[in-house]
Inverse folding.
């Protein structure tokens, strides 16, 4: 059985969290996979947990209780080629982690935690996307375009924060690619090439998953999780 760590504080009343559980059920059933998806508070992130995870999904619901815990999980996935999906708040924290630990901006911050920080890589959106559906475009040849089998899609958002426009050129100095954008050209999808699976979406794909039509992004993430588990050297204590 594959072990997916859902990093974030579970709230049964928050629609994206229920949708996350449902989407995993939809995709795992379609794929014939047995998946143990466990919600892990950011306060509980440690090396033992990360060593057992076959993949990491950083879920919506920020601010997280422990910012460093969320970033630690993302960094582990990025550096150890562990499949990682970040949706909504997860996308935002993938940006912060990359800015801090790859680009060297040690003070890279998120406006939800510190709106007056000097290095805001994630800022409040001028127009909230919470509750909205929008069409976005994917970069030709990107992994996300391949997953969707198309270069555009309509997705649902729950967020009030996104990549600070002035920081986009800095992010593009590294190998993190912005592969999805809205009609105004704002960053909505990021991915790391040559990684087992490292994709962040500002939208919430799980919100559009159904038993009849599991979301392709979630299904691809679970497939990458299974591949990673099969390739990994057996580890003591893993499930």
């Amino acid at each position: 059985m594959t072990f997916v760590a859902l990093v974030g504080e579970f709230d049964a009343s928050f629609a994206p969290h229920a949708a996350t559980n449902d989407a995993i059920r939809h995709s795992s059933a379609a794929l014939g996979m047995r998946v143990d998806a466990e919600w892990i508070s950011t306060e509980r992130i440690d090396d033992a947990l990360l060593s057992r995870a076959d993949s990491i999904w950083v879920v919506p619901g920020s601010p997280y209780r422990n910012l460093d815990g969320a970033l630690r999980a993302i960094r582990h996935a990025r550096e150890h080629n562990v499949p990682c999906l970040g949706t909504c708040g997860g996308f935002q924290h993938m940006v912060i982690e990359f800015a801090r630990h790859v680009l060297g901006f040690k003070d890279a911050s998120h406006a939800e935690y510190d709106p007056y920080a000097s290095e805001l890589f994630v800022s409040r959106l001028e127009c909230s996307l919470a509750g909205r559906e929008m069409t976005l475009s994917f970069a030709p040849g990107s992994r996300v375009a391949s997953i969707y089998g198309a270069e555009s899609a309509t997705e649902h958002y729950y967020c009030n924060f996104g990549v600070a426009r002035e920081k986009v050129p800095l992010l593009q100095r590294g190998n993190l690619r912005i592969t999805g954008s809205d009609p105004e050209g704002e960053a909505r999808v990021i991915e790391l090439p040559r990684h087992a699976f490292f994709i962040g979406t500002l939208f919430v794909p799980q919100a559009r998953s159904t038993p009849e039509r599991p979301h392709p992004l979630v299904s691809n993430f679970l497939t990458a999780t299974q591949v990673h588990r099969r390739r990994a050297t057996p580890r003591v204590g893993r499930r």
About this structure: The CA atoms of residues 33 and 113 lie 37 Å apart. The chain has one domain: 2-231. The longest helix spans residues 15-31. The chain has seven helices and twelve strands.
